[in-house]
Design a protein that fits this description.
Number of helices: 14
Largest sheet: 8 strands, mixed
Shape: globular
Structural class: alpha/beta
Radius of gyration: 21 Å
């Protein structure tokens, strides 16, 4: 039995176009679009009609950087695949790309299978995986080729966290050389972790234990240096590079210089760097611990460079790096020692709304909003045009968005499994009203109608930007 849904009267916004159009959905996919009021559109019939008058009709968001159930610092991220993907749906995101983790001394396969098992049958929206390489050796390098064939086409390496995820320059170069031959994309956490550990040790020895010192030791120059070094290693390997969670002016400048040379170098930033700052890290009574993440929040003056980078396309993607830890019992592990605060913030539910607010604030255009939150992450990670757009043949991942609704972000009303909001009390204009995932309504007029297990694992092709 074919099922048809018709979305009538909205303003359809994609990365390329804005058009008052009706959208016909059939069997989980976009079947057709036609200008509202035309004979073609008027002739359509469907079992379900959604009135989108006065609303935006946008592609479901693609959040290419989440960490559900990530073990870190003696605890685990508080969102499960079930709670985290449900919260994502509430925020208008219909696909996440999460990170499977290789443990040191173990195979990529073992790590990947563990993440398949965590997510299977539990997700409210579609999902895919990147692979974190924690142990680069001959065996794991060979496994990279097999994973690319399986649809795991991106691999994350860390220049930070010695003793946990850290890879040295030789390991990084080998992994980049492998990705140059197998079509994979290397994602880099670019901070000089060896130097940072020295500064952490020195700060603690001076009795500097508060959360704000987390930001002070993870210096801007050590992000810029690592970004520069990652770019040069990628050039030597002839490999593309995607730098995650770029937070600082100087790091953006390194990416811009590389892109000006025509290199396949890409950059991602996150809402926390665009809307929060070291002022939050300095909040009294250990409240600053809520904002401890790496790369850290920067002084507010760095925000202008990040917005400019998003406008000039030196930064291409906004993801969340969603990795929530409750203040009570988790962030508190670092009382008296900022280096023991679990690193990460909640945000998967807030990204689309915060970026819409950025449209209203004049930072980006409506089409750029969709580009950095939907279309580009889908292209970057081999999901387009199945995901990230509204076009015939695409999955019917569609959000009906009310651009005039006013809301206040708060832990009282969010759906993430965490006891605080990083944006507590922030007033924004614009709110998700209805969400379809592959044609199935999972949020209906601000009511959750989805279910765990609706979301499907989605293999990916390789990066669609490589020249």
């Amino acid at each position: 039995m074919s099922t048809r849904t018709l979305i009538r009267g909205g303003l359809v916004i994609t990365a390329a176009d804005e058009i008052h159009a009706d959208v016909l959905i059939e069997d989980g996919r976009i079947a057709a679009l036609a200008a509202h009021g035309t004979a073609a559109a008027e002739s359509w019939t469907a079992e379900r009609t959604i009135d989108a008058t006065g609303r935006y009709v946008i592609p479901g968001g693609v959040d290419a950087h989440t960490h559900m159930e990530l073990p870190f610092g003696g605890t685990s991220a508080s969102d499960t695949f079930e709670t985290g993907t449900r919260a994502a749906a509430w925020g208008g995101t219909t696909t996440i790309v999460d990170f499977a983790v290789q443990s040191v001394g173990r195979s990529l396969r073992e790590g990947l299978d563990a993440w398949y098992a965590k997510a299977d049958g539990r997700c409210a929206i579609d999902y895919a995986f990147h692979m974190i390489l924690s142990d680069v050796n001959e065996s794991s390098l060979k496994e990279m080729d097999l994973l690319v064939e399986e649809g795991i086409t991106s691999f994350k390496l860390f220049m930070a966290y010695p003793g946990v995820f850290y890879s040295d320059d030789g390991q990084i170069l080998r992994a980049m050389q492998r990705s140059a031959s197998n079509g994979g994309l290397i994602m880099m956490h670019a901070e000089n972790g060896i130097a940072i550990d020295v500064l952490v040790e020195q700060a603690l020895a001076r009795g500097e234990t508060d959360p704000r010192h987390h930001g002070e030791v993870r210096k801007v120059l050590l992000e810029a240096e690592a970004t520069h070094r990652a770019i040069q290693l990628a050039r030597v390997a002839g490999a593309p590079l995607y730098v995650v969670h770029v937070s600082a002016d100087e790091a953006v400048a390194e990416l811009a210089a590389a892109r000006d040379k025509g290199l396949n170098v890409f950059g991602e930033t996150c809402p926390q760097y665009l809307f929060l700052s070291t002022d939050n890290l300095a909040e009294p009574d250990f409240e600053g611990a809520k904002y401890v993440c790496s790369t850290p929040l920067r002084p507010r003056e760095h925000q202008a460079a990040l917005w400019r980078g998003l406008r000039t396309n030196d930064l291409q993607v906004v993801s969340t790096d969603h990795c929530p830890f409750c203040f009570s019992g988790q962030k508190e592990l670092g009382r008296g020692d900022f280096s023991k605060i679990p690193n990460g913030l909640p945000g998967v539910e807030n990204r689309m709304d915060l970026l819409h607010q950025a449209v209203l604030d004049g930072h980006i255009t409506r089409r750029r909003w969709i580009e950095i939150a939907c279309a580009t992450p889908a292209r970057m990670f081999g999901l387009y045009p199945k995901k990230g757009t509204i076009a015939p043949g695409a999955d019917a991942d569609v959000v009906i968005y009310d651009p005039h609704a006013e809301q206040t972000l708060s832990a009282e009303t969010h759906h993430m499994n965490v006891d605080y909001s990083a944006y507590e009390g922030k007033a924004v204009t614009g709110q998700v009203e209805t969400v379809l995932s592959r044609g199935e309504v999972v949020i209906e007029r601000r009511r959750f109608t989805g279910r765990a297990g609706h979301g499907l694992y989605t293999p990916r092709s390789t990066c669609q930007y490589l020249n």
